[in-house]
Amino acid sequence: MEKNPLKRLAAINDLSGVGKCSLTVMLPVVSATGVECSCLPTTVLSTHTCVFQGYTVRDLSQDIVPMAEHWAREGVPFDGIVTGYMANAGQAEQIARAMELLRGEGTLVVVDPAMADNGAYYSMLGDPIRDAFRDLIRRADVITPNVTEAALLAGMEYMAPPQSEEYLRRLLAALAALGPRVVAVTSVYDQAGQVGCLALDTGSGKTRRYMHPAYEGSFHGSGDVFTAALSALLVRGAPLEAALETAGELVCDSIRRTVDRGSPRHYGVDFESALPDYIRRVEALLGR
Ligand code: PXL
Q1: ω into residue 77 within 30 of 0, thus cis?
Q2: pLDDT band at 234 (very low <50, low <70, confident <90, very high)
Q3: Is the pLDDT of residue 1 over 70?
Q4: 108-111 and 142-143 as β-strands: parallel, antiparallel, unpaired?
């Protein structure tokens, strides 16, 4: 008899070999949260697609459903499913099918519509990917777009930082209408020059925010760190407010360390040295 089994999260995402994001962030952060991370790679790339040139892309779309079918045949139970970047819009159909196969009663589904930042789509992506994410989001309990992605999904103009409260309210309302229980918008800049996350719990109608002082520029992969931590914390049963704060602290700490170390931005954030403090905070919140 298994006593107090570990929670298990399926991470359906790409594997970019260099430039910490997607699965190379999901796996360590989810594990550090005390949750088993089962990886379903949708695409293998030599690097992510920002700044790097000449990267290789191996589309694994044809393996997504067979991998999920195998897990379903084995009867592997999943407490959560988290999905993010898609290399093309066609992957949405396979990912949706995989979600149906893996989702049980009470499985938390998190969709990070990772497709754009700073007002523009990532390389190789355009409106078809937005439409595909709109479809996937209808199956999600929680979504974690940044402001650019939120605006694309909501069909609103992108507002460069700082965003007005009125704009952010409209953004949250438009995204809530797409169906998720929790809308957590990241890379929100407020009038006080702080950056962070603004979340709406559509059940209670309450909004919560976790803000920290902003560093100049953007930090590649920080959204993946946030989504990985938030998903795993929620799967472990953390209340939304504490999960937002704990995930936000990990992101903030990772960014600070990246700046202190002077690491190249496109290599991703230095979450590694932030993990010990994160693990201590997770233990204080949820135990071992
Ligand atoms: O972090 C988002 C992301 C994930 N995966 C790939 C990417 C990006 C952003 O550019 O290129 C392959």
Answers
A1: no
A2: very high
A3: no
A4: parallel
Task: Give pLDDT tens digits for 78-136.
Answer: 999 999 999 999 999 999 999 999 999 999 999 999 999 999 999 999 999 999 999 99
Q: Dihedrals φ, ψ of 49, to 5°?
A: -100, 5
Rounded distance from Cα 75 to ligand 1 centre (Å): 31
pLDDT digits (tens, 9 = 90+) for 92-102: 999 999 999 99
Residues in the ligand 1 pocket, defined by CB under 6 Å: 14, 16, 21-22, 45, 48-50, 85, 114, 122, 221, 223-224
Look at ligand 1, atom 8, and give the residue with the nearest C-alpha: 48
Closest CA to 223 of 250, 202, 259: 250
Mean of pLDDT values over 160-167? 96
Q: How many CB atoms lie within 10 A of CB 18?
A: 15
| pLDDT of 12 over the 80 cut | yes
Q: Which residues on neighbouring strands pair with residue 147, listed in sequence order?
A: none
Q: Which two structure tokens, joined as six digits, stand for 207?
A: 């909004």
- Ligand 1 atom closest to the Cα of residue 50 is 10
Average pLDDT over residues 174-200: 95
Q: Which residues 6+ apart lie within 8 Å of 62 measured at CB? A: none
Query: Are the beta carbons of 148 and 133 closer than 8 angstroms?
Result: no
CATH 3.40.50.1000 at 7-286, yes or no: no
State how far the Cα of 209 lies from the Cα of 99, in Å rounded to an integer. 29
User: In this structure, which amino acid lies at residue 212?
Assistant: H
Q: What is the secondary structure of 68-111 as a DSSP string?
A: HHHHHHHT---SEEEE---SSTTHHHHHHHHHHHH--TT-EEEE
- What residues does each domain of the chain span? 7-286
Question: 206: burial class by Cβ within 10 Å (0-12, 13-18, 19+)?
Answer: exposed
User: What's the predicted TM-score (pTM) here?
Assistant: 0.98
Q: Percentage of the chain with pLDDT > 70? A: 100
